[in-house]
Design goal:
Blueprint: E1 5-9, H1 15-21, H2 24-32, E2 40-44, E3 59-62, H3 74-88, E4 93-96, H4 98-106, E5 110-113, E6 119-127, E7 142-147, E8 149-153, E9 159-164, E10 171-175, E11 178-181, H5 189-198, H6 200-205, H7 210-215, H8 221-234
Parallel strand pairs: 1-2, 1-3, 3-4, 4-11
Antiparallel strand pairs: 5-8, 6-7, 6-9, 9-10, 10-11
Length: about 240
């Protein structure tokens, strides 16, 4: 019997997106389309229950979250310990936004508030190192993002794959079997536009132009391709 792909759920989308698109896991499944014949298994790591042996899965995807790795909640610390086990057992893992940060912290890096400020909307990324998960990314190199924290210090052995204007660690290969992206490959233009609208007053107070960010929102096809490539490579 083939092993499933696990989605480790670390948080929920904003309410308006949850009502229209479902959970982060729902959006990941929808973005993957028919690329994966294997079933997905949803595991909410906030429940603090015992997680299965990582070798139960063909691969693992860790979702985003409104929580902060820096708060050091018990479930975050436990999740980091699990991710270290995932890497040690050589199970492929792909972290999205918060998941990317949790991987970085788990493996010896540091997560802090992004000193360059909030990154939100459809952003351009620049490929700085070739890697299989970027093999399908084509110009324009756009991805959808929403975050205030970043992996400010990479763990030993990590390799930067892509950067953005505000995020020097936009895509990282943390180890032979672990990748993270600071953007959201599962979000299309409509979803990131809804995030911008929901946070419009905060964005304007921070000196950003919420109207322009909403107007410029697009489907981040190149960003989405990183998730699809991960699934292509490691879904048995």
């Amino acid at each position: 019997m083939s092993r499933p792909i696990a989605i480790l759920i670390a948080g929920d989308p904003i309410e308006s997106v949850r009502q229209s698109r479902g959970s982060y896991a729902d959006m990941i499944r929808r973005a993957s389309g028919d690329r994966v014949a294997l079933p997905f298994v949803d595991l909410d790591i906030r429940s603090r229950g015992v997680l299965p042996d990582p070798r139960t899965f063909a691969g693992i995807v860790v979702t985003g979250s409104a929580s902060s790795v820096t708060d050091r909640e018990d479930w975050v610390v436990q999740g980091e310990a699990y991710l270290r086990r995932v890497v040690e057992t050589n199970v492929p893992v792909f972290g999205i936004c918060f998941g990317h940060q949790m991987l970085g912290q788990a493996l010896g890096g540091l997560v802090e508030r992004n000193p360059r400020g909030r990154e939100i909307g459809t952003v351009k990324f620049r490929v700085v190192s070739a890697d299989p998960i970027l093999a399908a990314a084509t110009a324009p190199f756009l991805a959808n993002a929403t975050h205030v924290d970043s992996v400010t210090l990479l763990p030993p052995g990590a390799k930067v794959l892509a950067t953005t204007e505000r995020e020097p660690h936009a895509a990282v290969r943390f180890s032979e079997n672990a990748w993270g992206v600071q953007f959201h490959p599962e979000m299309d233009g409509d979803v990131v536009r809804e995030y911008v609208r929901a946070r419009g007053a905060i964005l304007n107070d921070e000196g950003l132009d919420a109207d322009a960010l909403a107007t410029n929102a697009r489907d981040g096809v190149a960003g989405t391709s990183t998730l699809l490539r991960f699934l292509d490579l490691f879904a048995e």
